[in-house]
Write a structure and sequence with these properties.
By secondary structure, the chain is α/β, with parallel strands linked by helices. The protein is built from eleven helices and 15 strands. It has an eight-stranded parallel beta sheet. It has a three-stranded antiparallel beta sheet with strand order 5-15-14, with helices on one face. Strands 1-2 form a two-stranded antiparallel ribbon. Strand 12, helix 11 and strand 13 form a beta-alpha-beta unit.
């Protein structure tokens, strides 16, 4: 990776993925990607390879139009391996589209051909340590910065304040988002928001400050501060999303094809939108093979309030272009 990717969950200098290719009997293919992540440490490369090998046996001979049913059957007993199943599903989804001569962008609605993403500023020991990456993002033309914070109220406030000061005067109009990656408690979150308000640092959103299973804590912090509360690690399925809606736990959800797959992402999108939740689209550390699924979902539906699809900017190896031109924060899509 071009810089150390550090969050409250850990840090890494290299990203590892498994690329998946689904081949139909007449030779048509589709590709997907299974990234690895701090969030799902049990999805190791050997485990991913084993599950994909099993899928070849289980799905062989199934008509491509029947893959959703066959895949759901295969998913039983393997639901904790969501990224592996998601990458497999993307490959099958794309193979089916190619077989029918359909465009992935059109499949989602083709609402837009250009979208802009934010850029992540990984957590660092100091602003000076993050300066090189931040300066690179400024030169590339980014205007929205998602800062990773680590749960230390004073330290995080100093880090965010330093980043904001470095942006002022260099980026005429910029927005700041914060991502807690489950590092906060209800008490420290409230203190964090109060600290930001005291020094007049406005944030566009705060993503997943509490543990993904701290439902009681989420009920306590809902409405603390003006920034929307967006849930990521807490929402993998429609069942998770329905709980957020029923218990009024957050203002929005972060949908990632890598964690929820094609059908799951579409279902969460429909459910969250109908309930009036804000929608964010995100990614793991993926090459363009996997990231392109999220880009086409976002552009095709035109449904998302926040776009966080910046993974390829961290990578030396970005994967095939996939019909998407990248210029700083902007993605421009061909009709594929």
């Amino acid at each position: 990776m071009r810089t150390t990717f550090a969050t409250a969950r850990g840090s890494k200098r290299a990203a590892t993925s498994v690329l998946v290719k689904a081949t139909l009997s007449e030779g048509t293919t589709g590709r997907g990607e299974v990234p690895t992540s701090f969030v799902m440490p049990h999805e190791t490369i050997p485990v991913i390879r084993t599950i994909l090998a099993e899928s070849g046996t289980a799905l062989g001979g199934v008509a491509i139009e029947d893959y959703p049913v066959a895949l759901e059957r295969f998913r039983r007993g393997r639901k904790e391996f969501c990224m592996t199943l998601g990458g497999l599903e993307v490959a099958l989804f794309r193979a089916g589209l190619a077989c029918r001569g359909e465009s992935e962008l059109d499949c989602w609605g083709a609402k837009a051909r250009t979208i802009e993403t934010d850029i992540t500023i990984p957590h660092a020991a100091s602003v000076a340590a993050a300066a090189g990456w931040l300066d690179r993002a400024v030169r590339a033309g980014f205007s929205t910065y998602k800062i990773k914070v680590a749960g230390d109220v004073a330290g995080d406030l100093a880090f965010v304040g330093g980043i904001v000061e470095r942006l002022r005067g260099r980026v005429p109009h910029f927005a700041v988002r914060l991502d807690g990656n489950q590092a906060y408690t209800p008490r420290t979150y409230a203190a964090r928001i109060a600290g930001l308000e005291k020094v007049r640092i406005g944030i566009e959103l705060f993503e997943q400050p509490l543990r993904k299973d701290d439902w009681a804590g989420l009920r306590k912090i809902r409405g603390v501060g003006a920034a929307p509360l967006i849930l990521d690690e807490a929402v993998f399925t429609t069942r998770d999303c329905q709980r957020v809606i029923d218990e009024r736990l957050a203002d929005g959800v972060n949908i990632k094809v890598a964690k929820s797959g094609i059908a799951g992402s579409a279902a969460i999108l429909r459910l969250a939108k109908a309930a009036g939740l804000k929608l964010m689209v995100g990614c793991m550390t993926e090459t363009m093979v996997g990231l392109s699924a999220g880009i086409r979902l976002a552009a095709g539906t035109g449904a998302f309030d926040y776009v966080d699809l910046d993974a390829v900017h961290f990578l030396y190896h970005r994967g095939a272009p996939e019909g998407i031109a990248t210029a700083g924060p902007r993605y421009t899509l061909e009709n594929r």
